[in-house]
């Protein structure tokens, strides 16, 4: 069975099913997470090289965290909403608009069966000087391969992932991230992907996934 | 040439050279980044399931980000300090105390030539329900293998990384992350590592690194 057998035929233009990735809203927790991303970047830009009173910054952030945590549902209740309906694509550390760790990457399903997105990464994702951390590339690709499986119609959990680093991946430039399911054999799914900059591949990924899912909290 | 030839002999107890990983300070930008981590977690716990005015939270965070950015050095100047002296281990997305994306993981060099650290991950690092995202495990391991190379005396850039996922890696439980350089052949470095929970391996990593470094901004 090949990926082609699973590939839905999207309408023009390229479809983006709600369950593939979530679109960030300009309100609610998405807006707060977007501002938190700006803050993470600003802290790195500042370091201890400004006259800002960092104790005061810490105090303000702690107060906000306390306020949010006090009003938040308990972790078990929250796990249920995270794994219900469209919640499933809202909290992950790659595409999740609610997760300030996520750049976030937005992926769209394509007619050829692949998924693709563009993202520009800054200081928080740095490995070598001016370059994306190799582990961040692995994070983006692992997730993208998982979304490619979802788009192809059969997804699962990563069993093995191999990354090849062909050249440094630049910060501050648009990166194209792609994934594509290439074969399904019983429960074994083979999926590939890459990160490119300026039309040149920087990192490739090859993944073996097993078609099973952990139970969702309920 | 094996790793043993590079391994420094640390004094008891386990040594932690300043350049291996940085110790988070309870002040300055480290304290602000620690508070930002609490905030990232709190936003995910809250989601859109509280009566908190998220527009107001976003406004406060944007104001802090604006204030920090205005007073921060220019990006080129900041890159220089990031890559000078002990700065090199302060900003990365795995161990960096200045980076709110980093858990942060603290790694210590050990007498047997390996590096090891313990970390507990929460909501921001979730992949499958209640489990660490496979890509986050890859991020932690890529970095840990790099630090293991540093500890062994010869480090470089990741050329190839293979991850094997043996069982789900739990959130909310202490994880042991280890890395160890196993061989050096010219510029080719082989390094392995793993993430364990409760004494059982969850993820293993095998990396090929090339002994070269990108120039540091100056």
Give a brief outline of the structure.
2 copies of one chain form a homodimer. By secondary structure, the first copy, chain A, is α+β, with helices and mostly antiparallel strands.
**What general outline of chain A do the C-alpha atoms trace?**
globular
Mean pLDDT reading of chain A:
91
Helix/strand-derived category of chain A reads alpha+beta
Rg of chain A, nearest Å: 19 Å
Keywords:
homodimer; alpha+beta; 2 domains; 6 strands; about 25% strand; globular; disordered N terminus
Q: Could you explain how this protein is built, in words?
A:
The structure is a homodimer of 218-residue chains. Chain A is 31% helix and 23% strand. Chain A has 218 residues and is α+β, with helices and mostly antiparallel strands. The longest helix of chain A has 19 residues, at 28-46. Chain A has helices at residues 3-6, 28-46, 54-71, 75-82, 134-152, and strands at residues 108-109, 115-120, 157-165, 174-185, 188-197, 200-210. A six-stranded antiparallel β-sheet of chain A has the order 1-2-4-5-6-3, with helices on one face. Chain A contains five helices and six strands; from the N terminus they run ααααββαββββ.
């Amino acid at each position: 069975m090949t990926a082609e057998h699973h590939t839905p035929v999207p309408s023009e233009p390229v479809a983006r099913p709600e369950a593939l990735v979530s679109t960030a809203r300009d309100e609610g927790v998405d807006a707060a997470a977007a501002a938190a991303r700006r803050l993470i970047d600003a802290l790195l830009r500042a370091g201890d090289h400004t006259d800002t009173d960092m104790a005061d910054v810490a105090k303000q952030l702690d107060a906000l965290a306390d306020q949010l945590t006090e009003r938040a549902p308990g972790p078990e209740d929250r796990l249920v909403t995270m794994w219900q309906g469209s919640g499933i694509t809202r909290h992950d550390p790659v595409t999740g608009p609610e997760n300030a760790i996520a750049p976030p990457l937005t992926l769209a399903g394509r007619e050829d069966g692949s998924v693709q997105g563009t993202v520009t990464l800054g200081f928080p994702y740095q490995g070598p000087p001016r370059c994306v951390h190799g582990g961040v590339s692995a994070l983006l690709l692992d997730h993208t391969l998982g979304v490619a499986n979802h788009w192809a119609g059969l997804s699962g959990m990563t069993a093995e992932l191999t990354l090849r680093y062909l050249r440094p991946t630049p910060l501050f430039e648009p990166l194209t991230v792609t994934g594509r399911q290439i074969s399904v054999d019983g429960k074994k799914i083979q999926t590939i992907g890459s990160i490119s900059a300026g039309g040149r591949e920087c990192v490739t990924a090859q993944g073996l996934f097993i078609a099973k899912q952990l139970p969702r909290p309920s």
